[in-house]
Design brief:
By secondary structure, the chain is mostly helical. Helices cover 67% and strands 0% of the residues. It contains 16 helices and no strands. It starts with a helix and ends with a helix. Belongs to the UPF0718 family. It is found in: Cell membrane. InterPro entries: DUF318, UPF0718.
Length: 318
């Protein structure tokens, strides 16, 4: 009974912590769709393999939401036909590269200036790596099916045919190639779509929080922190802890402060880098964006990248 009570308390804490950021992300996506019609700015985003993810990552400065809030924004980018690199750069880097997270990192570790530079830089590099690998996959193997259909409807017939769109009449005349007048969607339509999106994501978030709470209750953290002084094992242990604990990127620096003195610098950085990209809470949310194969690639590559960064930091700091 004690473990169930602990699991229930952890579940409530995770859910109450994540819901405001999820709501913020859905609100940002809805406002962007209503105030600035997608065709007014999506077409201006760079499609260069390097510039696209850089642009997406830097968008995190203007959209201060944690990883839960970034999922609906990234979904709206993909659905609107934005370059894949831009959407993925935002999805993976913005949870760290935003003013709230940067400020919380500084507040938790004001005397460790290297961490204030290493965390955003590491998140930026991981986002570029993941974006570069994921865009190599065909969209049909990468993007979740309903999102892919929505994305194809927003792209011109010159790049996506009628059969690929899944809509339209074969043999029908092509639309006028001249650009049409941009129309702002009805506010009621935006509210309806945003509400539906919030409820869908909330269901997945609840599932992720249940799994995270159960794992945390039955897996003592002391097991992971017991190897905190070993250069490599400490990194692996803190990566596992980041996946299990599933805290929000806006507050994970304060949680890390509680065991920072017991682990190596590379392990501390690994905890702060991996959580916003791979954790049990995000596993469900990512299913509205990516297919299982792409989620698996994301998890494996992110873990390897964070492990390498942590090892390099330990060689440099120890």
């Amino acid at each position: 009974m004690d473990r169930l009570a602990t699991a229930w308390a952890i579940f409530q804490g995770l859910l109450l912590e994540a819901i405001p950021f999820l709501l913020l992300g859905v609100t940002i996506a809805g406002l962007a769709r209503w105030l600035v019609p997608q065709s007014a700015w999506i077409g201006r985003l760079p499609r260069h393999p390097l510039l696209a993810p850089i642009t997406g990552a830097l968008m995190g400065f203007a959209l201060p939401a944690c990883e839960c809030g970034n999922v609906p924004v990234a979904r709206r980018l993909l659905a609107s036909g934005a370059p894949l690199g831009t959407a993925f750069g935002f999805l993976f880097a913005a949870p760290v590269l935003n003013p709230i997270v940067l400020a919380s990192t500084w507040a938790a570790f004001p005397d460790q200036s290297w961490l204030l530079i290493a965390r955003p830089l590491g998140a930026f590099l991981i986002a570029l790596l993941l974006s570069a690998l994921l865009v190599q996959l065909p969209e049909a193997q990468l993007i979740e099916s309903s999102l892919l259909a929505e994305r194809r409807l927003s792209q011109p017939l010159s790049s996506i045919g009628l059969l690929e769109r899944g809509a339209g009449l074969i043999g029908a005349a092509l639309p006028d190639p001249q650009p049409t007048r941009i129309k702002r969607p009805q506010l009621s339509e935006v509210l309806e779509q945003s509400s539906r999106e919030f409820l869908d994501l909330l269901a997945l978030l609840v599932l992720g929080c249940v799994i995270a709470a159960l794992v945390q209750s039955w897996l003592p953290r002391s097991w992971l922190l017991a190897v905190g002084s070993a250069p490599t094992l400490s990194i692996v242990a803190l990566m596992l802890l980041a996946i299990v604990v599933s805290v929000c990127s806006s507050v994970d620096a304060f949680l890390a402060l509680g065991f920072a003195a017991q682990v190596t610098p590379g392990a501390l950085l690994a905890f702060l880098l991996l959580g916003p990209v791979v954790d049990l809470k995000l596993a469900g949310l990512f299913t509205v964006l990516l297919r299982p194969k792409a989620i698996g690639i994301t998890a494996i590559v992110a873990c390897l990248g964070v492990l390498l960064i942590g090892q390099w930091v330990n060689l440099w700091q120890l």
